[in-house]
Design goal:
Length: 95
């Protein structure tokens, strides 16, 4: 991934992330189309590949992004697992 992705405004980053999550959640990796991700994000396919050099790079970034979301929900502010959070949240909606 190109580190300049992090220089984008937060709103644009989230458009790309959400578009990628939507397309990958509805299709397996092989059938997820980067043209559709770019269209849903409101950017060109070339720009998508500027930030994520290929589909695999984007997929792995999104996987890591989701893993961090889950860890933030499970871990308390002290870095210890929050048993209450573990029991109350249904994480299937993240994916």
């Amino acid at each position: 991934m190109n580190e300049q992705f992090y220089d984008l405004p937060q709103e644009k980053q989230m458009r790309i992330i959400n578009a990628g999550l939507e397309v990958f959640s509805k299709n397996d990796y092989k059938h997820a189309v980067t043209d559709e991700i770019a269209r849903k994000a409101g950017i060109s396919k070339g720009l998508l590949f500027y930030y994520f050099h290929n589909k695999k790079s984007l997929y792995l970034y999104l996987f890591d992004y989701c893993a961090k979301l889950i860890m933030n929900q499970v871990m308390g502010s002290d870095g210890e697992a929050d048993a209450e959070a573990c029991g109350k949240h249904d994480f299937t909606g993240v994916f």
